[in-house]
Amino acid sequence: GGADDVLQVCQKMLNSMRRDKEVESKQSKLILLDQDGIVIDPKLAGYNARMLYNELQAKLNQAAGGEYKFIDRKAVAAERQRQLAGEVKTSGVDAAPAGADMILSIELIAMQGGETNTVQYNFKLTGLDTIVLWSDNATIVKRR
Question: In sequence order, what DSSP letters do the residues of 33-92 get, joined into one string?
Fold first, then answer.
């Protein structure tokens, strides 16, 4: 899965989310992209989990066109703590920012055949009550 594959998968998954009545009925479209929720099949040698996470976050936000926002809480947690403690000043910092009410986890599964490499991207959107709101997958097959 190269960058073009990731963009293709993200576009497909967002289109699927847009067609889901339960997801579309949510007032907030703020989704936590769970870094710990990205699972990569060990057979996908050479995949760097952090690079893949960054690629997924960028491509999901690009494909969402502002309709959905995929956030990374870990990336800003330390700075946010410094702001709230008064160690640094930043305009617009509220004590209780809007939080995500959905969490997206992604699993990549690999299968190698005689002449092909196959990667299945499994997306699962869960509410904070742990109920799965939506799930879908996309499969990319590459010839060797």
Answer: EEEEEEEE-TTSTT--HHHHHHHHHHHHHHHHTTSSEEE-HHHHHHHHHHHHTTSS--TT
> Residue-wise pLDDT tens for the chain (144 aa)?
577 899 999 999 999 999 999 999 998 899 999 888 889 988 887 788 888 999 999 999 999 998 999 988 776 566 566 666 776 665 555 555 567 889 999 999 999 888 998 999 999 999 989 999 999 999 999 887
How many angstroms separate the Cα of 8 from the Cα of each of 1, 15, 19?
10, 11, 17
| CA dist., res. 1 & res. 106, Å (int) | 14
